[in-house]
Amino acid sequence: MSTLTNIPVRVTDAAAAHVQALGLQRPMEQMIEHMKQVVVGLRCIVVTYEENPEDAQIEPLVVICGYEEPSSREAGDIRIEVELDRWVVQTFPPEVGCRFVTALTAGDPNGR
Amino acid sequence: MDGREFLQSARDLLAVPCERNWRSAAGRAYYALLHEGQTTLQRWGFPKLAQENLHVFVRRRFVFTPHPDLQAVGRALDRLSHLRNQGDYQLSTSGPFAGAPDATNAVAMAASMVALLDAINADPVRSAAVVAALRTAWP
Q1: At A103, which helix (H) or strand (E)?
Q2: ipTM over 0.90
Q3: Per-residue pLDDT reduced to its tens digit, A84-110
Q4: What pTM, to 2 d.p., does this model score?
Q5: Which helix (H) or strand (E) element contains residue A11?
Q6: Helix locations, A23-112, DSSP H
Q7: pLDDT in tens, B22-62
Q8: Residue B133: which residues within 8 A CB-CB, separation 6 or more?
Q9: Partner-chain contact A61 B78, CB within 8 Å
Q10: Residue B29: enclosing H or E segment and its boundaries?
């Protein structure tokens, strides 16, 4: 378990506005903090607002994306994703949890 | 054909490692779980109406029903949908598809959730509880 609290976090303006409109700043902060605490090899967290590119009927989501060190776990080992989801389900009611996706990626946080 | 067969398509794609296949594998993983979710909902007595959007129908029943097994599937669907959207629409940068891990994890997640649905179906007590939760949330 990581004890680092100085992991950089960036929340896009669109995500911040959406979360504020929903009144869900505190749950977002809790999800970010939990991700910091439990994900080993976390480089940074980026929070974005995502509308579905195909269908406006699908509710937009706030994506809390943790960027991991590429070597921090074996590909296909999804235990940490399962744990993140379990925590969200246990901590928040469906109408709150459903607004957020907690994702992890080995990709480049600079988007290359 | 069962939706889960898309999992094999995804694994076939992963076996030929390159960015286009990692992107496509993420999509197959999402659709495998989406279709298995729809099939399972139908088996439990919740058929999709003809005019309903498949993505919305399946997502809402899994995400909004207050039952941990259903919400686990729903959250996995949302994560896979997010990755699939990146794979199919954000081509200007490699992003999560610069390597195999994200696509590999997506396929593993879809397979894990299909196995969860199978486990629920194999357990009459567990499936009865899930169906009861769905009936309460979606009368």
Answers
A1: strand A100-105
A2: yes
A3: 999 999 999 999 999 999 999 988 777
A4: 0.94
A5: strand A9-11
A6: 25-38, 79-91, 94-97
A7: 999 999 999 999 999 999 999 999 999 999 999 999 999 99
A8: B65, B66, B67, B70
A9: yes
A10: helix B19-43
Please list every residue in chain B whose beta carbon sits closer than 8 Å to the beta carbon of residue A63: 82
Residue keyed to tokens 């959207």: B85
Q: A45: part of which helix (H) or strand (E)?
A: strand A42-50
How far is residue B37 from each of residues B24, B67, B71, measured CA to CA in Å? 20, 15, 12
Tokens 């994306």 — which residue? A65
In this structure, what token pair is assigned to residue A76?
A: 């296909």
A84 neighbors A102 (Cβ within 8 angstroms):
yes
**Which chain B residues are closer than 8 Å to A77 by Cβ?**
105, 108
Q: Give the rounded distance of the alpha carbon of A35 from its chain centre.
A: 7
User: Are B100 and A57 a contacting pair at CB < 8 A?
Assistant: no
Token digits for B75?
């959250």
User: Bridge partners of A104?
Assistant: A66
Residue B107 gets which letter from DSSP?
H
